[in-house]
């Protein structure tokens, strides 16, 4: 099998710990637990995020324009799945810029994985906790009705999995402490709408309860991630672990020819000019030049997923691009603005091969910036729709993610065929070939074109 792109793996987990403040017996453990969480939180930078009301304004304007012209064509109305896309984009940009207020390293993050796991968790939330989920997950902004969320998510997951020639595997799993009296509706909706596997597990496992969790993750990610939980992450107070793993393996629609790959200079962010193995292809890509950023769309074979390279011009920078995107989010959806309106153009295109593996990222500080707060507060969280626990209160103790991406050009048999494809697709009077060298730090975004759901995003700044 010719695989020129072996891609990305992500794992996300939410752990709900039992608050034992009301139970005197385990008070010592609780103290240890909160010390650990505080320590984790302190390890990450925080940053204030402006509440994003811009899309409402943007959509209202669009609606007004639509009405003025008496034009209610489908184009102006978002499908339910596209509205999840809007919600996903809201979380993607805010969490990413919160995790990385300024870029100084290679990064990989999966907004889709985070969003899916949080939507599953929202099912069990009530009252103010639920309200916070609803608005911070962008559902309010995207006008997804509260009762619609899980039904639309179910459709989204089904349509995303219907890709030919691409393995897009979305696995959900819920591990529940033996004896926790789960609400029937919670496990029913998880099973029917998220195809989640709900299993009991033993937190007092002498072998270490994290081992079975890590084994599940390794299986779901085809062995690419095997160490998401450390010894001690799961302990006697852990009531439940909600997990989502996304695995994507895809081939470029236009394959790079390995014999064209050569060492080329890359103007890295931190250590000057480096020599990096760089792929090259002459083909037609969808392309746009927006002021200070060039955008190139690399399609995947047999699917409507694509990877977008957002390359800041030599006189700009990656940090400037991200700051502008964040600033623009006050009036529009910057991902959507930058990634639409591309036109096909023949490019002589150079892209470094790269592989990025993130650390295990603690997402709680970023989610707090997004407005999700009560869920993490042992005295305020309300997850009464998860389980009937009278004296104990469930709250979220950990939200972690780890992701891996590996971009290369394996598979050379299709090369000749690809070239024929180029000739057929070319225009009668093509504009001159444009040389695009991705030889400086860039942002990449992998998303579905139909629903505009961002599966993965990250930055490459050098080796
Ligand atoms: C409505 O707008 C769409 C896209 O903006 C356009 O293609 C269509 O022709 C318009 N229809 C009418 C009746 O103006
Ligand atoms: C189960 O949960 C779903 C999603 O929150 C909700 O729409 C539905 O009404 C619930 N059903 C029952 C029987 O509580
Ligand atoms: C940077 O260069 C691009 C062309 O490469 C140009 O369009 C843009 O205006 C320049 N921006 C600044 C701030 O000089």
Q: What do these coordinates show?
A:
The chain has twelve helices and 16 strands. It has helices at residues 27-42, 54-68, 80-99, 111-122, 127-136, 149-161, 184-194, 210-220, 318-328, 334-339, 364-369, 415-425, and strands spanning 5-19, 107-109, 167-177, 197-201, 238-249, 262-267, 273-290, 293-299, 305-312, 343-352, 354-357, 361-362, 393-407, 434-437, 442-448, 454-460. A hairpin with a 2-residue loop joins β7 (273-290) and β8. It starts with a strand and ends with a strand. Residues 1-75 and 411-427 have low confidence and may be disordered. The structure holds 2-acetamido-2-deoxy-beta-D-glucopyranose (3 copies). One 2-acetamido-2-deoxy-beta-D-glucopyranose binds at residues 292, 313, 315.
Keyword list:
463 residues, 9-stranded mixed β-sheet, signal, binds 2-acetamido-2-deoxy-beta-D-glucopyranose, globular, serine-type endopeptidase inhibitor activity, disordered N terminus, 29% strand, 7-stranded mixed β-sheet, Serpin_CS, alpha+beta
Topology overview:
Layout: E1 5-19, H1 27-42, H2 54-68, H3 80-99, E2 107-109, H4 111-122, H5 127-136, H6 149-161, E3 167-177, H7 184-194, E4 197-201, H8 210-220, E5 238-249, E6 262-267, E7 273-290, E8 293-299, E9 305-312, H9 318-328, H10 334-339, E10 343-352, E11 354-357, E12 361-362, H11 364-369, E13 393-407, H12 415-425, E14 434-437, E15 442-448, E16 454-460
Helix pairs in contact: 6-7
């Amino acid at each position: 099998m010719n695989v020129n792109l072996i891609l990305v793996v992500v794992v996300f987990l939410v752990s709900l710990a039992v608050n034992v403040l009301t139970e005197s017996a385990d008070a010592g453990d609780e103290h240890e637990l909160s010390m650990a969480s505080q320590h984790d939180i302190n390890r990450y930078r925080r940053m204030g995020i402006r509440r994003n009301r811009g899309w409402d304004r943007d959509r209202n304007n669009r609606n007004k324009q639509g009405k003025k012209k008496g034009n209610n064509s489908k184009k102006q109305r978002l499908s339910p799945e596209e509205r999840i896309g809007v919600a996903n984009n809201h979380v993607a940009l805010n969490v990413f810029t919160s995790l990385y207020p300024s870029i100084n390293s290679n990064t990989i993050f999966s907004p889709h994985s985070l969003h899916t796991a949080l939507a599953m968790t929202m099912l069990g939330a009530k009252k103010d906790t639920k309200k916070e989920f609803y608005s911070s997950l962008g559902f309010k902004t995207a006008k997804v009705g509260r009762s619609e969320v899980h039904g639309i998510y179910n459709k989204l997951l089904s349509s995303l999995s219907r890709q030919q020639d691409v393995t897009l595997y979305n696995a959900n799993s819920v591990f529940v402490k033996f004896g926790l009296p789960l609400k029937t509706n919670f496990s029913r909706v998880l099973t029917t709408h998220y195809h989640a596997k709900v299993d009991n597990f033993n937190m007092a496992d002498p072998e270490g309860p994290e081992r079975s969790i890590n084994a599940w993750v390794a299986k779901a990610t085809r062995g690419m991630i095997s160490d998401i939980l450390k010894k001690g992450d799961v302990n006697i107070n852990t009531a439940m672990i909600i997990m989502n793993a996304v695995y994507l393996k895809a081939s470029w629609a236009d394959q790079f020819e390995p014999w064209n790959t050569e060492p080329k200079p890359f103007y890295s962010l931190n250590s000057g000019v480096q020599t990096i193995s760089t792929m090259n292809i002459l083909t037609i890509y969808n392309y746009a030049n927006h002021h200070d950023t060039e955008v190139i769309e690399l399609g995947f074979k047999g699917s409507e997923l694509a990877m977008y390279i957002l390359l800041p011009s030599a006189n700009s920078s990656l940090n400037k691009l991200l700051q502008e995107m964040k600033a623009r989010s006050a009036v529009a959806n910057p991902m959507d603005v930058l990634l639409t309106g591309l036109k096909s153009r023949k490019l002589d295109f150079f892209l470094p091969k790269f592989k990025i593996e993130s650390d295990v990222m603690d997402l709680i500080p970023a989610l707090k910036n997004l407005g999700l707060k009560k869920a993490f507060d042992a005295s305020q969280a309300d997850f009464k729709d998860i389980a009937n626990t009278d004296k104990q209160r469930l709250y979220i103790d950990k939200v972690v993610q780890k992701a891996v991406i590996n971009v290369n050009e394996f598979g050379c048999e299709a090369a000749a065929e690809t070239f024929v494809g180029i000739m057929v697709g070319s225009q009668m009077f093509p504009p001159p070939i444009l040389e695009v060298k991705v030889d400086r730090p860039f942002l990449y975004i992998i998303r579905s074109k139909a629903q505009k759901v961002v599966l993965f995003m990250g930055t490459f700044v050098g080796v």
